[in-house]
Amino acid sequence: MGHIVQKAIDLGFDPVKAIQMATINPAQHFSLDGIIGGIAPGKYADILLVPGLSKIKPKLVISNGKVIAKNGKLLAQPKKPEFHICMKPIKLKRRMLPSDFQVYAEGKEAKVRIIKFVGELVIKETQATLPVIDGTIKCNPEKDILKVAVADRCRQQERVFTGFVEGFGIRSGALASSVAWDTLNLIVLGSNENDMAKAVNRISVHGGGIILAENGKVLVEIPLPIAGTMSDLPMKILAKKLEDMRLKLRERGCPLRDPHLSLITLTSPAIPFIRICEDGLIDIKTGKTLSLIIEP
Description:
By secondary structure, the chain is an alpha+beta fold.
């Protein structure tokens, strides 16, 4: 917050107004100004002492009436959070099989709806004709058409829907995550069912996570044991793992700047135009479920 206030001052805001915008104004907005937002008897004694209003660089930091930092040095250790209630919540009822991600159809080929990335987050519907081999529709990584599947990770694991996606770019492997925007689902995208199953099952081992797998091996794994959505790793280690994942996906052809974010927002109803959930493809404008296979 100090950085934001300093930026406002550097951009020409009156220092007093900039400080008010970060303290008393939001406190009043949320009706919390009786306990925070200002310095007065009865309020929490969270105070920063700065040498002047033009530079928000505290010489002394007081929290709850105690000095916790002085001249840039921390004098008190942060309280370690406890997450035991919500640790490792994701335990699949059974191991996922490659067959869980198959899409069945008759004939030699099938026309299907495709989720196509037209930006980092925005997608649209397109269509493609894919081969049907041994009764299942195959994706086509060489033409950038992959499989994407969503599974309910909290209530009914058997609720799994598999569709197709274009624009992610990878030619091999699978990326899975226990984070899926606006839902309590698992989401996995991949060039083949074996790696998709491998990635999802590895999530269950950690009780939540982000997994990149290829040829039956885990390339990158980022445990998310806190509610299946947060990491307990030190920030430097977490950042390194995320960057490693991005680099490996880029090496495999992914053009997206943040592949994990692009993947997990495929479930969000807040972004147009077509989204995926455990029940199927959803048209965001109409709210209707769309059939994956387009009948002739």
